[in-house]
Design goal:
- There is one protein chain.
- With 574 residues, the protein is of the alpha/beta class.
- It is 44% helix and 14% strand.
- Strand 5 (222-228) and strand 6 form a beta hairpin.
- It is globular.
């Protein structure tokens, strides 16, 4: 009998196989397993149903060998090949590989040459100066390793916002449907839309808290109950994430929602403001210290108004000047979640995407978009299925035909080029000049020295045909640190050269970060919020990029793809 296993779980097994093969310095196979994992991660249909129809080998990147591995996973829920690789490599090497700047090959080298098997041993070796003598390492490497270890420890137990938000919303929706629940909301870092989260926090109001807690602890996602009470219960859901539910009386809901949304520093500043007015503020209410009675507060908006402030959006509540801006009337009108008029970075099945251009166009039209830029990869380093000049011409003809057939949306022909070591895109100017959108991104040699990498990116920004700098720092959340870049210089150049900085909405990127968005805006730069979707059902991930922009204090005017198609084309022509 087959074991129930999700597409995400199957993909995770294949990704782990790829990492372990890379540690063993196996050629070609890691890339093949990653391609197959990406396909399964993005395919809309349950992979088990695909297997039942005998169509696994029809999926991109899935050949006979990997199809056999998939059948084993779907039958048993695990893969013997992975278990053998784990035993060969050992747990210590796998832990080292997760530390930024180490990677699979260096992790194996450190283990083989110095016997290092965990972060503590790595830290001791770096502090003792033992690593610099190894091939591929220098004295500076040890300082970088120590910094990466600190980051690694900080992010332990964190999960990607984009992975956990749908899970949390599904739980919230089930609770909202319960007859005893009056109000329910996500809280904590999820509500503030931080790029990574620890626990999932949910707040509800009810006159029957026991009934709500019983329903919560019986949810199908729950794998373990940590504690159950009348005001708070904690459970663990797959994949090992803790979910806390707090239930309060209806009259306490507004102040409790503000309190449990956080951040801690924002709350401290608000409590200080309340004390200056003779009140005390807590999750239980806003109390007059003289009368010892709670003031009536029915909404968060009313709470902020009583404290002499306009409403501060949850994404801004980090104590980064938002209270002072609210007091002075200079809070920005944050870009709304429905502001984008289109998406300027999607991939079709012409390169490494899953869906046809038509499918993407219809999905974008259903979202209410007025335009969509098809920016498949140009052929270059690491891009096996990229487009050359001939394929770009063929694709453009298809796009022109679809623009004649489809009403209500305009398809824009574009490309995503790799930025070469010299800063030039990997297509000649005579090809780029005829495209509506040219995105330039770094996809290889991401660990170049800071000065060299900065000059590489600056050269691309100054290229006459580049419109957008894609995922500018190259980071992968919880997996890869940003490239070493002089970001202030890049922000100034982008502003001067009229090149938009991308806020890439892929859950693993969210690049630029919120803090860098704010710094870039202060330098005069503008932005494009793009999904970087590789399938139609990934277009909705753009909301993660919008959340990042909001956390970075950006308005709709800061975002080029909030404009109508005509204005957008005019902006890029400038």
């Amino acid at each position: 009998m087959a074991v129930p296993v999700s597409n995400r779980e199957v993909a995770a097994i294949l990704y782990e196989v790829a990492d372990l093969l890379e540690m063993k310095d196996v050629k070609f196979k890691p890339a093949a397993y990653r391609r197959a994992a990406h396909t399964i991660e993005t395919v809309a249909e349950d992979i088990g149903r695909v297997a039942e129809r005998g169509e696994l080998e029809d999926l991109p990147g899935v050949g006979t060998h990997i199809a056999g591995k998939l059948k084993e996973i779907l039958e048993s829920g695990k893969l013997g090949y992975l278990e053998r690789l784990k035993a060969e490599v050992g747990p210590g090497v796998r832990e080292l590989a997760e530390i930024g700047g180490i990677g699979p090959k260096k992790a194996m080298l450190l283990h083989q040459k110095l016997g290092i098997g965990n972060a503590d041993q790595l830290e001791a070796a770096a502090r003792a100066g033992k690593i610099r003598a190894l091939p591929g390492f220098k004295e500076k490497s040890e300082a970088n390793i120590l910094a990466s270890i600190a980051t690694h420890r900080q992010r332990a137990g964190r999960s990607l916002l984009g992975r956990m938000l749908p899970v949390a919303e599904a739980i919230r929706a089930r609770l909202a449907a319960h007859p005893a629940v009056r109000q329910v909301s996500l809280a904590g870092s999820l509500r503030r839309m931080k790029e990574t989260i620890g626990d999932i926090d949910i707040l509800a109001s009810s006159a029957e808290p026991d009934a709500v807690m019983a329903a919560f602890t019986a949810l199908p996602e729950v794998t373990r109950i940590l504690g159950r009470g009348t005001t708070k219960s904690s459970v663990v859901i797959d994949p090992g994430v803790q979910v806390d539910l707090r239930v309060v009386e209806e009259g306490q809901y507004a102040t409790a929602l503000q309190y449990f949304t956080g951040s801690k520093d924002h709350n401290i500043a608000l409590r200080r403001r309340a004390l200056e007015r003779g009140w005390s503020l807590s999750e239980y209410g806003l109390k007059d210290e003289k009368s010892k009675k709670n003031l009536a507060v029915s909404t968060e908006e009313e709470l902020y108004r009583i404290l002499g402030l306009p409403f501060i959006e949850p994404e801004l509540r980090e104590n980064r000047g938002e209270i002072e801006a609210a007091e002075s009337g200079t809070l920005p009108a944050l870009v709304p979640y429905n502001a984008p008029a289109g998406d300027l970075h999607v991939h079709s099945d012409w390169s490494d995407g899953r869906d046809s251009i038509r499918t993407l166009a219809l999905a974008a039209k259903e979202r209410g978009y007025r335009y969509l830029a098809i920016c498949d990869h140009a052929r270059g380093p690491g891009i096996e299925k990229g487009l050359d000049a001939g394929k770009i011409g063929e694709q453009r003809a298809v796009i022109e035909q679809l623009n004649r057939e489809l009403g209500g949306i305009v398809l824009l022909p574009g490309i995503e080029c790799n930025i070469g070591p010299d800063g030039n895109p990997d297509l000649p100017p005579d090809v780029l000049k005829d495209l509506d959108i040219v995105i330039a991104s770094v996809h290889d040699s991401l660990r170049m020295k800071g000065e060299e990498m900065t000059q590489r990116v600056l050269a691309a920004i100054h290229h006459e045909h580049v419109d957008i700098l894609g995922h500018p720092t190259g980071r992968l959340l919880l997996r890869r640190e940003p490239s070493d870049l002089d970001l202030p210089a890049i922000f100034r150049a982008a502003a001067d050269q009229h090149v938009a900085l991308e806020i890439n909405s892929s859950p693993s990127r969210l690049d630029l970060s919120d803090t860098n968005c704010r710094k870039a805006r202060d330098a005069g730069a503008v932005f494009a919020i793009n999904s970087d979707a590789h399938a139609a059902d990934e277009l909705g991930e753009i909301r993660l990029g919008i959340a990042t922009a909001r956390r970075g204090w950006l308005t709709a005017e800061d975002i080029v793809n909030t404009r109508p198609a005509g204005d957008l084309r005019g902006w890029f022509r400038r």
